[in-house]
Structure formats: C-alpha cells, structure tokens
Amino acid sequence: PTPLAGHERRARWRERDMDSSESKQVERWNAFVKLVEERGVAVTATVRSGIETAANAAETLAGTGRNVACVTVRESDAARAAERRGAACALLLQETKHTRNNRVKFLVGEAMLREVMVDPTLSRYDALVLADVSERHAVSDVLLALVRKIKQHRKELGVVLVSSPIEARPLASSFDPSNPPTVMSMDDQGFPVQLYYTEQPCTDIVRDAVQAAMQIHRKEGPGDILVFLTGEKEVEDAVHAATEELQSRQKSKGRALLPLPLHGNLSPPEREAALRLPSRGCRKCVFSTAIAEGLLEMPGIVYVVDCCLAKMQVCDFKASMESVLVVPASKIQCNQRSDKAGTFRPGKCFRLCTERAFNESLPQTHPPEIQRCDLVNIVLRLKALGIQDLLRFEWVVPPSAEAIVQALEMLHALKAVDDEGKLTHPLGTHMAELPLDAMMARALLAAGKFGCTEELVTLAALHITASIWDIPIVDRKGLNDARAPFAVEEGDHITYLNVYNSWVRAGKTPNWCDEFRISYRSLRKADHIRTQLKLHLQRIRIPLATSGQEVEPVLKALVAGFFANAATLQAGDFGEDGQPTFRSFRGGSRIHLQSMSVLHGSEPPLILYTKLIPGSQLHYVRDVSIIKAEWLTQLASHYYAHRG
Q: Whole-model pTM above 0.85?
C-alpha cells in the first residue's frame, strides 16, 4: 500500500443549536451537521487545506437542497476547488459557470464583497462557508463583519466558519449568542513530526539554514528538504551558497542535492521545478519564502528547516507608506510550516532557535492584517455599501482611527469621496464597481478623458498579473537582452504596451513568447483580464479609444490615478549597489529602482511608480515611468498644493 493508505485527517466539528423561529429550519440544519459528520469529516491526507475542508462542507450543504457560497482568500484555491466539483467560480476578474453542480459557488473575498454590493442581504444564498478566516486577512475580517450583520436580519442563513482551533472560539463569540455560526476547527494535521531546536541562538540565518540543510542531506534518510527563509533575497543568497558548497564537494559520493528557490517573482517553469518531484537518485532542497505555507501539497517533503522569522507588512501612517519588518514568526505560523514535513509520512522539523526562545519569545499570533495595512480599497468598498460612519462600524477587530482617516484622505484626493466623506457619483461609484485597486481604477477612468482607454485597460490587466518576463531576476544580462526589442526611454509602462501589442500582432502564440523569453501564461491571463475589464467599462459607458503612437496621454492617465506615487531624484545619493536614490513625495521615503525596471541604473529627475516592494529601511519600485512636473500640478494640484 502507498504511504497514504488508511491514513485519515480528522476534523472536529463543534455544533451549536441554531435558534430560529421555525423548528423546520432547525431540523434541516441539524440534518446538515449529521450529514457532514457522516460524509465530510474524514478527509484523506492528500487534502490538506482549509478550502478543501470547506468545500466538502459546502457540498454537503448543497446536498440538502441549499444554495451555498464558499469563500476563500486565494484565487488558486477557489479555482481548483470549483474545477474538481464542477461548480461555479467567481475570481477577482473571472467568472465561470457550473458544469454539473449548480448549488455551490466558490468565490474569492473580493468577489463576495461585490456580491454584497449588488445584493446586501445575499438573498440568493441559503448558507455561507467561510474558509481561511483564522488567517485574519483584511478582506476576510470585513466579510465576517458584514456576514454577522446580515445574519442578524436573516436568522435562517446558515454560516460555517473554517478556522484553526485557537481562533475558533473568539470568532464564533463575535456573533449573536442566540444565533451563532457552526465552527469547524481542525486538530490533526497529518503524520507525526519530530521537532528539533538549536542549542545556541543563530547569528546568521542564511548561513545556518544552508548548513542545516547540508547536515540533513549528509545524515538523514531519503526525503526532500524545505527551508523557510524571510524573503526573496535571502532565498536567492541561500541557493547560491548551497550551490557553491556543493560544487566544492563534487567528489563526495551518495545522492545528489538540487538547491531550488521558491518565491513570488519566479517564472512559471522555475516555480514548477521547485514543486515537482526530483529525478531518481537526487534529493531536492527548496529554499522558500512564506509562500510555501499556503501551498496545498509539496510532494516528497520530509524535512523542514524553519528560520522562525517572518516578514510582516505594516503601514507607517506618518510616512504614508507600507513597510516590511522582519519579526519573530508566530507559533501558529511555525506549526503550519512544520506540518509540511508530515504531509506524506512521518517527518522532522529543525527550528533555528532555542526551545526556550520559541516558548517565551514567539507570539501565539500576529495582529490581524486589518490593523496594519492600508485601508484605501476596503474603505472604498464599505462606502459603496452605504456604510458612512466607519468608526462605529462593527469591525471584528477595529483598525486605528488614524488608518481610517488616512484612507479617507487618499480617497478624497482621488475624488472618490466628497468633503463630507460620501461616495461621489459617478466617479466614486464607478471606482468601487471596478475590480481594481483605487488608484488603478482612477487611472482607467481618467483614460476616457485622455482618449487612451485601450492602452490603460492593457496596463491594468498587466498590473494584476505576474511578471511578463520568463527570466530569473538574477539573470541581469538575459533580462536586458530580452527587453531590448521593446524597451523605450519613457519607462516600463510603454515597454509593457510594446510587448503586448507585438504579441497580439504575432497571433498571440506561445512560440513568439518562447523566442523573446516572455511568459505566455502571464500574457494569456492578462489578455483574459483585459477582456473582462472592457466589459466593465462598456457597462458603465466609458468610451473605448486608443491614442495610437502618442504616449503622453497614457502617462497622463497614469498620473491621474497614481499622482501620490511620484518620486524625485536625490542628486549624489547612491545606495550600496551604486544605484541612484529617489525620494517619494508621499512620506519622503528613500526609493531605489528594482532591477526588473527598464529604467534601472538611469537617473531621471522625476518618476511615477505603480508597484512598490517595501523593505525595512529602503523601498524598491518597479513598473516605473518618467513624468513631467507640470503634469502633477495640472492633474493633482489639490494634492500637491500644500506640498510645495
């Protein structure tokens, strides 16, 4: 038998009586709980995520004749679960119909928020299953607050929360005690995992992680290795260090070791290489960021090395910019990482901290995202739902008043809300309806005025997708060679348009992408998103037009939305890598151009960026264009008047 044979991962259901005026509804709900216990509790070990557990519950509910919405935070989870069950699926910019299951619909959180905007009581659904609520993403917390309010008016609405045990009780207690949700909390996470700690604190995490992986390779039995590090740079440094050490030991006998990176900026082939099983006679060692925590499966992983650190994104309201801090990982996060070693057989986890430090210094959980993130997009959606007094809104955990005020100030600068904080019409209403962040939505709507809607809808689609370059970020020469036929002095945005338009003229073929080392998957996804965005624009009667060879209208439309993301060159100020430093108008933070930008190494006096890669002290930006100072005064005088 296979290692999975006979192994079951069990989930504990806490069932509470549903208080309803109709005893028949109570009977139907109890019947659901019984069905779940009979059909949905025992799940094979190949299913190891909250969305799969939630999907089983949703299917069971649908079996009682109910229409069910199953909500998760990750698009890949929703799409995979819907495809397996033949159900409908609503992603950020894509919606598919059901093929055989017309009772269940899988949605990401943003798509569910849009459904609430259209139907405030969610009358088309009889039950909701909310997965990943214990991860405390900002959208999940907002949805939870809205569902709690809806349930006060629709007592018959069934609500199931899929949560970790530690979060289950406080989340359930936030509902009306007379009509609480059903809470599903999972206890057993698979095969047993032995835990090991260091005797002394680690001083160099990358070096110690590489040495731990090498020691596992030399002394432990078969099985692949997964090493958790804090960020992309640490991952690439570790892969480089491991490769160099292996090359210095070429004469050593035994199984080969293959070091591989795993982070968000990899090309699809590189990501697939990190996830698939290695060839016979080879052991894989994957150095990964926290991205591996949310993966459903990583076949072959038996050993985990955990740095016990994490990067946490926080919003510095004084600097008006989000930053990333390296902090001790939470105990829940570390346990989630160690579970990866026990997915397919008993495994081992080596934690790069002392046992005392783990028990005494690591927090149980981190603050919810809504208490440490920029709230502009969330406040815009809540305003569209008619929620005016945000300070009195019944948040699951309230954000700071400072965060709410700053979000309102930015929306006012974008002209999405008026002086009284009410949504403007039609601009603010249309911005809330578009499935984009507030700045990109404003730029896209401004494109109608500048006659470049076709160009902006392309840039908006590419803004959502992963990098279009199918080249490792460390391959600087290869990246420059691939971009050369398309790069222009205006910057990244016009370069992206050149790439997309050339691909369209070539017939949208994958062969063309292979020739120029461009990601066919990213362009194809962007093309689909572009089609969906055009439908949204047609619905709100925004004219579709092109500026042809003129680039100034495109750049002005970007300025209309991203005016707050302008930065000036700091003459004579260079970083350790010799790159020029820019200083942002908003908050005065120091900024460097990321190597992925075509402007990397150049010194334009004034730039506008649409993507920020926050750091602890220095921020990097990509998707950058050169702009003129007069455009800021023409298009955002209300914002820059008091900034001189």
A: no
